Amino acid sequence: MSNLLESLEWADGQINPSGIGTTVYYALKSEIKTMARIVRTPAPATAEDNVNLAGDHEMQPGKFFKKLYTTQGVGKVFWEPLGEKDHKMFLNKGMFSFPDIGVEARSFAKQSINSNVVFIVKMPHESEVRFVQIGDADYDVTVTIKGDSGDKPGSAKGLTFDVESPCTTPLPGYVGAIVLEDGTLDCETGEFTESIS
């Protein structure tokens, strides 16, 4: 295995935005025919190879990724250590907030709470495109959804999604394509191409 431990330096004046984008992409794991994976042979030679998934998710015929709106400034992605000595991994987590508890939102909660869903999340950055994934071919995602009506005029309400999945990589990067019903999003460039009807 390559030794990829390098110095972590910080340059003065770097622009370093936080948070996540307002659109989260998701698909049922059962609707993904072949999932992108981190290439393990040969051993990763660069930091990018070590944490980015290689290739595209190939969907089952007629299936697509879907979109979930999340309120800006409320959601995030993060990880925590998982496991015992010599067996350490990462528990990748996401928190998303949808601002309503109407019929469609409650139906979504009912359908997804016991489903195995893969999430792809855009993280803002000044000089590069960054998408990360929660859920992979080896480990399932646990979805916990809470609903809240708010307690006073103007207070926050809606659905709160807490998702988590164990993984050998902290927030693996997804640089492949997200196939949506209306087009394809290239996660390496951030460019969206509409489907031709």
Short description:
The protein has helices spanning 47-51, 103-112; strands at 23-28, 32-34, 52-53, 58-59, 66-69, 76-82, 89-98, 117-123, 130-134, 142-148, 158-167, 173-174, 177-180, 183-186, 192-194.
Give a verbal description of the structure.
- The protein is mostly beta strands.
- The protein has one domain.
- Helix content is 8%, strand content 39%.
- It contains 2 helices and 15 strands.
- The strands form 5 sheets. It has a 4-stranded antiparallel beta sheet with strand order 5-1-8-9, with no helix packed on it.
- Strand 14 and strand 15 (192-194) form a beta hairpin.
- The longest helix has 10 residues, at 103-112.
- It is globular and about 55 Å long.
- The N and C termini lie far apart (47 Å).
